[in-house]
Structure to design on (212 residues):
């Protein structure tokens, strides 16, 4: 139940991020080509949202099998060896995640300590006006006189993304141990392309029959 709710939240966040990026890029193109102007904050916000989309989507990609992988060797193994190989691969992936989590923590801790702000994105005035200047800087690293969004906030997705990815790998390891799956699910672009071709062919046949 909890996993299903979280999956809906994941999908909702990813849809919101890609929709926001699309609207921002559309607004920037209209501003540049029709009004000969632009907004620096749109560029920085779009890049930030893109980073959030990629890092937040990593874990979702593991869940739905959207990542590309090579399994030519693994498919030739028997069931037991395939299970062991899959567990080894998951452990390596978890080690990779832990390394990134530690590096991200150190990086964000330094950004927080120094109080590095984003270049072109400021916090809304109505929100900043509610903050106590001393507490805002001490706890959030926000300068109310120049209320730019702190870099540690915008890049906190490093911790969030790799934490979610670690959780997905742990879920996968448990599923492998329980024999619920034999390993990673990978995207098969050739198979998907053939499926799309078959669908297009069926649609064409249906239209021709309808015309007759």
């Amino acid at each position: 139940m909890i996993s299903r709710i979280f999956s809906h939240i994941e999908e909702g966040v990813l849809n919101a991020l890609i929709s926001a990026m699309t609207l921002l890029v559309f607004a920037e193109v209209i501003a540049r080509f029709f009004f000969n102007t632009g907004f620096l904050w749109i560029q920085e916000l779009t890049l930030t949202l893109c980073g959030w989309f990629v890092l937040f989507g990593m874990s979702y990609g593991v869940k739905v099998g959207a990542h590309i992988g090579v399994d030519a060797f693994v498919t030739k193994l028997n069931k037991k060896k395939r299970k062991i190989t899959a567990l080894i691969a998951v452990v390596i992936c978890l080690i990779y995640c832990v390394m990134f989590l530690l590096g991200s923590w150190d990086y964000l801790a330094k950004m927080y300590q120094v109080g590095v702000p984003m270049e072109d994105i400021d916090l809304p005035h109505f929100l900043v006006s509610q903050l106590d200047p001393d507490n805002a800087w001490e706890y959030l690293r926000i300068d109310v006189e120049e209320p730019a969004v702190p870099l540690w906030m915008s890049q906190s997705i490093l911790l969030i993304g790799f934490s979610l990815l670690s959780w997905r790998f742990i879920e996968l390891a448990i599923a492998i141990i329980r024999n619920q799956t034999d390993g990673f699910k990978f995207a098969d672009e050739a198979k998907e392309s053939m499926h799309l071709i078959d669908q297009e062919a069926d649609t064409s046949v249906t239209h021709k029959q309808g015309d007759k």
Notes: The mean pLDDT is 84. The longest strand covers residues 117-122. The CA atoms of residues 92 and 172 lie 13 Å apart. The beta strands are 117-122, 148-150.
